[in-house]
Endolytic murein transglycosylase (Jezberella montanilacus), 336 residues
Amino acid sequence: MNALLKLFAYLLALVVIMVAAAGGVAYHWATDKLALQTPYVDVLVPAGSNAGAIARIINQSGIDLEPLAFSWLARLSRLDKKIKAGGYQLKQGDTPWSVLQRMAQGDVSSRQVALIEGWTLKQIFAVLDAQPDLVHLLKSKDVDQIIQATGIQRPYAEGLFFPDTYTYFAGTSDAELLVRAYKTQQIILEKAWQAKDPNLPYQNSYEALILASIVEKETGMAGDRGRIASVFINRLKAGMPLQTDPTVIYGMGEGFDGKIRKKDLQTDTPWNTYTRTGLPPSPIASVSRGALYASLHPDKTNYFYFVAKGDGSSVFASTLAEHNKNVATYILGKKP
């Protein structure tokens, strides 16, 4: 019996030693610094990712992290269910344990910036300049520099950046973010172009984008977009000038002081749709999906005129006489 007890004690001691050794190895691995080849590496953790999947994502970024070991570390520490999706920045000096803790705390390094529909390039740059975590490469705001940096194949950059909320990592450049917005716009535009209505007066998708930008600036009322698009399309088909104030304002540039005067309507610029027929040479603002859809699927109407009613909506007319009555009512304030 004594021999059996001694054997049991020996085996128990051996198990304790092995567990302690294993624990020591695990502790050393969990607190050993990860090998980064750069000062930091950005990693995006998709929603629903487990620790093993995250380790594989980190491996793809060039950092050696054993998936099975990282998974067991998360389970044993009970942090596996607390990992939060988002963008994380791994830095030199990080360990598997510090990375796991940061992800469980949701200490993300990603930021967000919203580009709003209807904004001009000038407004987009104003908000990008205000982002302290962006690297500002396009400081001159020179259009040629923007076109070169983003790979745009057209002489104008206006309207080519899709309005959306973009997530980015600290250290991303303004040029990189604009490339994303540009590529997103191209994908959305070409997909919408393939599903367009027949018999529209556009030679290509860019012209549809130009008209969509006018629709975007002419109304904030979603229900009116299709009818407003129909007015401009009817005018294009009839060879009539579009006569839309937002294009005149855009052509005035820094000369616009908040008011548009008769002389402004008569001063010719490439964007003055009172002095020139057809579409202007470029969009005048960023375009929402709704405005783009309206330009490619306009309402079927015989309208050639519309007037803003003052409440965000518009009233439409087929004839000049009817339009003049609407102007008298809603612009001049005369009773019908």
About this structure: The chain has 13 helices and six strands. Residues 7-22 have pLDDT under 50 and may be disordered. The beta strands are 40-45, 86-91, 110-114, 165-169, 305-308, 314-317.
